[in-house]
Amino acid sequence: MTTAYEGGHPDHDACSFLSSVIGKQFGVPVWEMPLYNRAAGELVRQQFLIRDDSPARAVLTASVEEIQHKKKMISAYQSQADFIKDFEPEVEQFRPQPQYDFTQPPHKGVLNYEAWNWPMSGTELCEAFKKVVGEQRPGEKAA
Q1: Measured between alpha carbons, how far is residue 46 from residues 5, 22, 93, 113, 130 in Å?
Q2: What is the spatial distance between Cα 59 and Cα 21, in angstroms, rounded to a whole number?
Q3: Which is nearest to 49 in space by CA: 89, 116, 101, 85?
Q4: Residue 38 pLDDT class (50, 70, 90 cuts)
Q5: DSSP bridge partners of 45
Q6: Residue 130 — left, alpha, or beta (φ > 0 → left; ψ -120 to 50 → alpha)?
Q7: pLDDT of 25 over the 70 cut
């Protein structure tokens, strides 16, 4: 399970890339979940960039205790409290990871971390991904 390649945070995109590489090398399935993106210009939480019929959506309805437990886990991230307060703890979405082209940013718009004026761009991150793939030994599967 990894984060979706969505341009929300460079660490999340790197985790998606690395999960793809590991999944291919070891022949294990990789599943992903959406966190946030800015593909449409506004910050969107918990929605995949590419909508299709593949997402499995779980709505936690088993018990109030289950939802309260998740809210307690979320509250442990105090440094992120302002940001994650708008997440819906009752909802989980996940799907098999699509075949992303990690040599290109996840969408053509401004990535979230570019909008936040972080000192990196999606293009720079993709260049780093290309270096990793280029450094694989002969016979290894590329991402």
Answers
A1: 13, 24, 7, 17, 28
A2: 30
A3: 101
A4: very high
A5: 36
A6: alpha
A7: yes
